[in-house]
Specification:
single chain; mainly beta; about 45% strand; six-stranded mixed β-sheet; four-stranded antiparallel β-sheet
Length: about 210
Amino acid sequence: STPGSVSYGVTGSEYFPTGCVVNSHTKISCTTVPGIGEDLFWRVTIRDQSNILQATTTYARPFIDSVTPISASSDGSDERGYLAFLKVSNSGLADPVTRRIVKFDTYEIPAEPDSPELTRREGDFDIIAFRIPKLYNRKRAVDVKISMVVFPYDKETGLAQRSSEVWSSNHILWKYDTPRISQVTVLDHPTNSDQLRVYLIGDNFGN
């Protein structure tokens, strides 16, 4: 037989498993749905009576497998027109009420929208597209830590529920491209004949 209702989540009512069957007086079997979160309470309601919220389960936390490219221009995505892609498992991408933020050093960068070319499912992994910020303000150029935060949002209000956020279980390191000098120009100083001005022309100098 089937139970009255079964749900689980932070408050016991965010997710609704499928195919629930009462196997016996002491056992109900269900199939969970895509989601995120730790210590999610289960609620079983039979004839207007519900259990005390004690039993919990936890979804696996996101794990970052790799990032592409492994380095890129210090001008950043907006000026150079490139994107970076995280290859992640357990990012909650199949859950329509979750959002993802890439933690890049001290920045919080929203994942690009879901599409076949941007954030998408690819085989056993989720591909999370995001924009690399321009290198400036003395930010790190090498060994930049990248991690990810996943959190739900309220479907009615559209507000993020950061109190229920889940961090990736690991981080990876990234770097900006190495500075490159392509030309050196030496000119007379405009006001001091004892000095010269040296101009280094290249890229990836940062600001």
